[in-house]
């Protein structure tokens, strides 16, 4: 199991309550991925990507709202 040091004692006390679904090799691979800093890089990349997508969505909604306010057909102007 890959988890922070501060949670290790609590996990060991309650280990019988958990059902381990990942194999040891998968856990070791994830631990190495995290240790190498790849997880943080992936999270940063995804945050940036989804921020860009959110801004595109907001712009599209804003433009449709403006066209509706002007009594224009938003579908006709989106092409």
Task: Give the topology, please.
Layout: H1 5-13, H2 24-35, H3 38-69, H4 74-77
Main beta sheet strand tally, sense and closure: none
Number of DSSP-assigned strands: 0
| Radius of gyration over C-alpha positions, nearest whole angstrom | 23 Å
The number of helical runs is: 4
In short:
With 79 residues, the protein is mainly alpha-helical.
Outline the structure in words.
This protein is mainly α and 79 residues long. The protein contains four helices and no strands. The chain has helices at residues 5-13, 24-35, 38-69, 74-77. The longest helix has 32 residues, at 38-69. The chain is elongated.
Essential attributes:
mainly alpha; 79 residues; 4 helices; 0% strand
């Amino acid at each position: 199991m890959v988890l922070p040091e501060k949670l290790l004692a609590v996990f060991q006390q309650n280990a019988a309550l958990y059902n381990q679904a990942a194999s040891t090799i998968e856990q070791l691979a994830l631990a190495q991925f995290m240790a190498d800093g790849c997880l943080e890089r992936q999270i940063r990349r995804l945050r940036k990507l989804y921020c860009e997508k959110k801004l595109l969505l907001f712009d599209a909604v804003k433009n449709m709202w403006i066209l509706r306010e002007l009594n224009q057909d938003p579908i006709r102007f989106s092409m």
